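[Meeting: bench + compute handoff]

Bench side (C.D.) handed over the final construct sequence. Compute side (W.E.) agreed to return the predicted structure before the next meeting so the bench team could plan truncations. Sequence as handed over:
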Amino acid sequence: MLEILHVVGARPNFMKAAPVMRALAGYGHVRQTLVHTGQHYDANMSDVFFAQLGLPEPTVNLGVGSGSHAVQTAQIMLRFEAVVAGQRPDWVVVYGDVNSTVAVALVCAKRLIPVAHVEAGLRSFDRTMPEEINRVLTDQIADLLFTPSADGDANLLREGVAATKIHRVGNVMIDTLVRLLPAAATCWETERLRPWQDRPYALVTLHRPANVDDPTMLGGLLSALAAIGRRLPVLFPVHPRTRQRLEDFGLGTAWPGLHLLEPLSYLEFLALQTRATLVITDSGGIQEETTYLGIPCLTVRDNTERPITVDMGTNILVGRDPARLQAEAYRILDGDVKTGCVPPLWDGRAGERVAAILARS
């Protein structure tokens, strides 16, 4: 029996793990265990995702909760080591670039437990981003590296990773999107989405510290969004971190045209993406989803670890510049829309390719 232990900690991980676990369930000689570190612990950010994605209840929840990067990473390492101390899985699979990813990879490297990294090789080349440190360290100590696109392969080879460890499988996030599009379409019957089903709108998500922890920056972005809101409604489901900053900085007052919403489930947010006139974000996964859906995307960052969404897809980097954000949004609303295409292997079957390699390892 092949023992595979999957570790998830934040909601992007859940969307990546679901198709891999589903595909591995078809192999009779594979036994799977799911560990949730509890890095995302809010029910809207975690529990509901397990239900919507069809993930099993985690065998273990480490319950680490919030904290600084050092505290959170250390707590995950301490608690995860206790989990694997009494067992020795054949593979531990980690996903993405969150603190859970690097913490678990470090524990496994010290205990000589093989690690597979799904979504390996992505690079923003910005070491001020905690996620970039997590990516680089995880990829250096992982034994199997599953990349979503050719740039990931090139990055790993340049960093000295052996070619035999690298497998380009495509984008597992797109697997989840493809599978759940029909379910997302039913969300238009809910009370929260029904008012927007026949109206044009822009959709926003912002949560990165560089954008929301500086009151001047956050205020400038809100002013730009309000200006866009004079052309069409701007829907802004507010991440709990961002909501706290709005309160801390006294920026939660009414902004005409800007609709501050409670966090949405994955299916609700996906439904809104499918009909959005444009999407404004600082999220990596949403850059990918909008490229697949063919929706114009403006990314409020100076760089991206997903350059394929710019080179081939519908994504435009506007930097941390509210004036440029407003100008690019107006261009889209005036009909100057960037077209793109779906990258190779973003076909809804990446999880199957990951499972096939793990199952024969």
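W.E. noted at the follow-up: The longest helix spans residues 69-85. C.D. will use this when planning the next construct.
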